[in-house]
Every structure is written in structure tokens, then in C-alpha cells.
């Protein structure tokens, strides 16, 4: 989970405006009477220091506490001078406290928009998403003509395996080669009937055999993006429960599809407030992590698990898992805990890896062994661990203790039929680990057809193929 900036073009409409503010919080500093929305060829371009200036204004102490999204409308005049006109602040701290206006207005000059040889006054929108002391940044580009696809390939920050040592071939599904509506994808899951579901940054796909079915803002209650009603909000995570309901984190809200109708859960009808990850427990209850604790949906009712009512180390929850013994394991950014029979125990035994890194995901195999992916970008404790049913710890890749410090684990699954672990590593690729033979294969953009270094959720289909959602399409192993 590194501080990585993604500058992504989100295509919308464009028009000439007369000092019009796009967002609810307005500022009076800007003097331009007329400008256009991200016009020009080329369009106005920010200096490389723009985000660093904003982060400097926020400060390290506030950055660790900051959560949510800020969208800024910045006017750039013909000399390239920036001025913050309006802002939509959906974080837990107010704009004045963050110093956004001063940071933006004191940034060095941009390159102004151009129409032929004439400089133009233009409006540019930047989006910054904050969580856990990290941020992502996007540029919202207003485009007159077409809706373009989004993708991000990238160069791996770790060398992959030699091509000759790789045992798998990948089939890649993109907007151009399949019915995938958008290349940038974050979620994939297999339901109880064996159908594969894909969540992209512009719609959901159900693949049943050779049939592709699409769900989006035009044929469901799923929200469209704020500025382009033809584009659907991004799917960030998904899971399938024991009743074959599909659950999705879309934008900031949660949606459930029961194979007939859709239901939306947000802050008005649930404790959901910017849900992050979805976990289904053995009893069919559905849990959602967030920076406000854990929201659990049980028997049609909601329950909140947080620092106040359950003595969690922190409300900023990274991972949660309920094992077959009904123990709830919780990873936060300030430590781990387990809840058993209503009692919360902090996991701070110095002999355990759980005292040194934070639970991001867990898995329980058929033998009762618990698999952990642990996150900590400091030190060398991050990585994959197994807690056997008799209480003994084993660390995978123990000879490479810093393997996951800078490049964390995004997701993993254990394929028990083939005795194989699959995991996605941030800014690297996808890793296959043969458990019995302790053989590692690292697939990247440089040694395979894997199209992106940004790989999120992984699933296994009913035929045994491995699927993964990437920022440049969906990949699937070709069965031999």
C-alpha cells in the first residue's frame, strides 16, 4: 500500500461557463469571469509538485487521520496561475483545517490550455482519495466527443520469474476483445451456480457459460457517476453469500442482488459509511470493513462493531474474518484483536506475528489451518503466514522477509484441490505458490500476458481456472 498517484482520465461533457462553481463549497478569490471545462489541445497541465504541495499543507499528522474524498475545481488562467474555485469535501476534516485553498493557490504555475496558438482560461477538476495515511489522485477530464476506456498497465517493481519457469498461460479479456464494459476492474467472484461475476469501473458483468449479462446504472438502481450519467460508479469489492446473493461495494455504498432485484444500503438505512471490503462468515452473515469499524448484516438486521462497543484497537479496520470456531479475527491499523464469545482479546503476544503486522485477509482450509496476509510497510513482518490447527506458526517466503513490505498483498486464495496458493501483489503482478514443493512463480507485465501490475481480487471458477481483476482487463488461466 504505497503512496501511489494514479492520474486517470474520466471522460465527461464540456461547456463554456461563466464563473460557475461545480462543487458546493465555493471560494471568492478567483477573478476569471469566463472559462471552459478542461478545454484545449493540449489541456492545462499541472506541475509535478501539485499533489506534494497539497499533502504538505495537510501535514503528516492530519494525513494519518484523514479519510474520504476531496474533489477540487481549479481555474487556470492564460498565464497558468491556479486558483481554487470550489470544492466537494467528503472527508472527516474540514477544508480550512486541511489548508487546501492556500496549497492550491500557491502552487507554481501550470501549463495553460491552448487552442491553436491562443491560451485559454480553463477549469480543471482533481480528485484525491485518502485512507490509512495513503492517497490516490485522479484528474477528471471533461471530454466533448466520446467515452473512452480506462486502463493502467505499469512496470513491475519486482522482477518476475524467468519466462521458461512459468507453468500457466493467461487469457486476457478487455473491452476490445470481449464484452467487458471497461478494462479497469477491481472485483471478481464465482457464485454458487458457477457463474463468474466481474466488477469494473463502469458496470458489472455476469458470465454464464458463453453468455455475458450486463448490469449498470441504466438497467439497475446502481448510481451513475456524478458528472456522466452514462457511466456507472466503480465496483470496489464483491462477495457471494450462502444464499447466492451478490454483494458489492460500489462507490461509497453497498448493493445486494438476490438474483431478482437490487437493494442499496447507505448511511441512511444502515451503518455503512464508505465500506471497503466484504467478508461472508460461515453462518451467512455479511461483514463490511470501514474506517468506522465493522458493519455486520445478520438476519436482516445491522450491528456495528467498533472501538467503543467492542474494544477494538482502532476503528480503522483493514481486515475481518470469522473462523469455524466462531472467532472473529480483526485487523486494524493500530493492532489486531479476536472476539470470542463476546470477549475481545488484543493479539499482542510478542512471539506471534500478529503483534508485528496487521491482518488484511484470512482463509481457513479444510484441515482447520488459518492463513493470514499481514500488512505493515515498516519493518519486515508483512507477508503470508499459516497458523496450524495445533497452534504453530509458519511463515512463507521466510528467506525474503521484506518481500511484502513495500509491495503489499492485495488478495489471495488457497486452491486446496491443487495445493496451490494464489496472491496478487501490489505494483508487481500475480504469484503462484506450490505449497508442497515450495515453488514460486511471479507473473508480471514483462514476462507474461498479464496486462497490469495492479491486480486486485482473485477467484476460482467451477472448472478450476483462476480469474483475477486487473486495472487493464480480466485474466484467466487457460486450462490444460
From TrEMBL:
Key words of the record: Signal
Signal sequence range: 1-19
Keyword Ribonucleoprotein applies: no
Protein name: Two component regulator propeller
Species, as recorded: Pedobacter soli
Lineage start: Bacteria, Pseudomonadati, Bacteroidota, Sphingobacteriia, Sphingobacteriales
Amino acid at each position: 500500500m504505497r503512496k501511489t498517484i494514479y492520474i486517470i482520465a474520466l471522460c465527461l461533457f464540456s461547456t463554456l461557463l461563466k464563473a460557475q462553481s461545480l462543487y458546493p463549497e465555493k471560494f471568492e478569490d478567483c477573478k476569471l469571469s469566463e472559462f471552459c471545462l478542461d478545454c484545449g489541445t493540449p489541456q492545462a497541465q499541472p506541475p509535478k509538485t501539485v499533489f506534494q504541495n497539497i499533502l504538505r499543507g495537510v501535514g503528516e499528522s492530519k494525513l494519518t487521520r484523514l479519510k474520504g474524498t476531496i474533489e477540487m475545481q481549479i481555474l487556470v488562467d492564460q498565464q497558468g496561475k491556479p486558483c481554487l474555485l470550489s470544492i466537494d469535501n467528503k472527508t472527516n476534516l474540514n477544508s480550512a483545517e486541511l489548508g487546501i485553498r492556500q496549497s492550491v493557490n500557491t502552487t507554481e504555475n501550470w501549463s495553460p490550455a491552448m487552442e491553436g496558438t491562443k491560451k485559454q482560461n480553463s477549469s480543471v477538476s482533481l480528485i484525491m482519495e485518502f485512507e490509512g495515511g495513503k492517497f490516490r489522485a485522479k484528474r477528471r477530464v471533461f471530454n466533448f466527443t466520446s467515452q473512452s476506456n480506462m486502463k493502467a498497465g505499469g512496470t513491475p517493481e519486482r522482477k518476475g520469474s524467468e519466462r521458461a519457469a512459468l507453468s500457466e498461460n493467461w487469457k486476457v479479456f478487455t473491452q476490445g476483445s470481449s464484452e467487458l464494459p471497461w478494462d479497469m476492474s477491481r472485483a471478481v467472484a464465482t457464485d454458487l451456480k458457477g457463474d463468474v461475476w466481474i466488477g469494473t469501473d463502469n458496470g458489472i458483468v455476469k458470465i454464464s457459460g458463453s453468455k455475458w449479462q450486463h448490469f449498470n446504472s441504466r438497467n439497475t438502481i446502481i448510481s451513475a457517476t456524478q458528472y456522466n450519467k452514462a457511466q456507472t460508479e466503480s465496483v470496489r469489492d464483491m462477495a457471494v453469500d450462502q444464499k447466492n446473493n451478490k454483494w458489492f461495494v460500489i462507490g461509497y455504498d453497498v448493493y445486494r442482488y438476490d438474483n431478482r432485484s437490487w437493494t442499496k444500503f447507505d448511511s441512511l438505512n444502515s451503518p455503512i459509511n464508505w465500506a471497503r471490503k466484504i467478508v461472508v462468515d460461515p453462518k451467512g452473515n455479511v461483514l463490511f470493513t470501514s474506517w468506522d469499524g465493522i458493519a455486520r448484516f445478520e438476519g436482516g438486521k445491522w450491528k456495528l462493531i467498533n472501538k467503543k462497543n467492542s474494544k477494538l484497537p482502532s476503528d480503522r479496520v483493514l481486515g475481518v474474518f470469522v473462523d469455524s470456531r466462531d472467532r472473529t479475527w480483526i485487523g486494524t491499523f493500530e493492532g489486531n484483536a479476536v472476539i470470542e464469545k463476546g470477549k475481545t482479546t488484543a493479539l499482542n503476544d510478542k512471539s506471534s506475528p500478529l503483534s508485528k503486522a496487521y491482518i488484511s485477509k484470512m482463509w481457513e482450509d479444510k484441515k482447520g489451518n488459518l492463513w493470514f496476509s499481514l500488512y505493515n510497510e515498516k519493518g519486515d513482518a508483512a507477508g503470508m503466514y499459516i497458523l496450524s490447527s495445533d497452534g504453530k506458526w509458519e511463515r512463507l517466503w521466510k528467506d525474503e522477509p521484506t518481500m511484502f513490505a513495500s509491495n503489499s498483498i492485495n488478495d489471495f486464495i488457497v486452491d486446496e484441490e491443487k495445493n496451490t496458493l494464489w496472491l496478487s501483489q501490489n505494483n508487481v503482478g500475480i504469484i503462484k505458490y506450490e505449497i508442497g514443493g515450495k515453488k514460486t512463480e511471479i507473473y508480471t507485465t514483462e514476462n507474461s500476458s498479464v496486462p497490469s501490475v495492479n491486480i486486485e481480487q482473485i477467484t476460482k471458477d467451477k472448472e478450476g481456472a483462476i480469474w483475477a481483476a486487473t486495472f487493464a482487463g480480466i485474466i484467466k488461466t487457460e486450462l490444460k
